[in-house]
């Protein structure tokens, strides 16, 4: 497996994968629970993973973003949490064929912690431990805690990852531009997120989703000023626009690759894509880095 931390010591950033959900749907996956596809249509999931490796990504994730018991419960699958996450990791590991590191994707629970909701930190941490246990059993080399808006929820996932023995952990928040600047849905600014999460021991910290490359570059600058940890950045392919009633991320692979230069110049050491990005976006990003 690729040694991510050793790769970060090089002069060029490490390229990660792009969006998963849209790629699976484009290949014919149907239904409202993507994690079910790991056992029902594993070949489609493997196609996405392999496509990103072929595009040049040296880090790929797993089809497990909504794999916590809380997310699986509405589908009657919370009892299969470990199984579905383990299968997600095995699919990506097999598709990577040793050419890319595999990190397990851990997204938010979709619930609110006390006092905004009724969940305790202990319950959320326990749920994340079940998910992460499955991912590590399936061969994931680490965990990406991603698309988080609440620092406390991200902290629960970080503690769970360390408790389960994850060798590498990434903490990635999601920010959007408001009048006050770039903040999460819970009002957390990039510097605050970095300052509060860094003491919990992540190996990398950063941002994904929520914004395009221009805004994520600003997030990287703020985080770089607040922490010495390597930075992780996976922006969307631009701000979505409505086309025929559907939200579409408009940036072409060429436009995305060009705009990612600002993200890298702002300090990102791992770069990839989120909503709207495809294997071709990642291929162009790799080519742009090779040409620098």
Describe, in plain words, how this protein is organized in 3D:
With 292 residues, the chain is α/β, with parallel strands linked by helices. It has one domain: TIM Barrel (Alpha-Beta Barrel), CATH 3.20.20.330. The chain has helices at 4-7, 21-26, 37-40, 42-55, 69-72, 81-96, 121-137, 151-163, 190-197, 213-226, 253-265, 279-291, and strands at 14-15, 59-60, 101-106, 142-148, 169-173, 176-178, 181-183, 204-208, 231-234, 241-243, 246-248, 268-271.
Fold blueprint:
Layout: H1 4-7, E1 14-15, H2 21-26, H3 37-40, H4 42-55, E2 59-60, H5 69-72, H6 81-96, E3 101-106, H7 121-137, E4 142-148, H8 151-163, E5 169-173, E6 176-178, E7 181-183, H9 190-197, E8 204-208, H10 213-226, E9 231-234, E10 241-243, E11 246-248, H11 253-265, E12 268-271, H12 279-291
Parallel strand pairs: 1-12, 2-3, 3-4, 4-5, 5-8, 8-9, 9-12
Antiparallel strand pairs: 6-7, 10-11
Helix pairs in contact: 4-6, 4-12, 6-7, 7-8, 9-10, 10-11, 11-12
């Amino acid at each position: 497996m690729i040694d991510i931390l050793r790769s970060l010591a090089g002069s060029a950033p490490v390229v990660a994968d792009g969006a998963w959900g849209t790629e699976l749907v484009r290949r014919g996956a149907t239904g409202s629970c993507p994690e079910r596809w790991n056992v029902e249509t594993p070949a489609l999931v493997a196609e996405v993973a392999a496509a990103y490796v072929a595009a040049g990504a040296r880090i790929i994730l797993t089809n497990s973003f909504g794999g916590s018991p809380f997310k699986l419960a509405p589908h009657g699958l919370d009892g299969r949490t470990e199984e579905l996450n383990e299968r997600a990791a095995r699919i990506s590991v097999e598709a990577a064929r040793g050419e890319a590191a595999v990190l397990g994707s851990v997204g938010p629970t979709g619930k609110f912690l006390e006092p905004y909701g009724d969940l305790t930190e202990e319950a959320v941490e326990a749920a994340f431990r079940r998910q992460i246990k499955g991912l590590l059993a399936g061969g994931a080399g680490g965990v990406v805690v991603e698309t988080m808006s609440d620092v406390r929820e991200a902290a629960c996932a970080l503690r769970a990852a360390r408790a389960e023995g994850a060798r590498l952990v990434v903490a990635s928040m999601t920010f959007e531009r408001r009048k006050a600047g770039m903040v999460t849905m819970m009002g957390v600014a990039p510097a605050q997120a970095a300052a509060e999460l860094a003491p919990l021991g992540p190996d990398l910290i950063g941002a994904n989703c929520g914004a395009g490359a221009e805004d994520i570059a600003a997030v990287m600058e703020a985080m770089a000023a607040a922490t010495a940890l390597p930075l992780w950045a996976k922006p969307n392919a631009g701000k979505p626009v409505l086309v025929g009633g559907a939200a579409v991320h408009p940036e072409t692979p060429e436009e995305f690759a060009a705009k990612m230069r600002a993200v890298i110049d702002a300090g990102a050491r791992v770069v990839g894509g989120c909503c709207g990005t495809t294997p071709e976006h990642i291929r162009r990003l790799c080519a742009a880095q090779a040409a620098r």
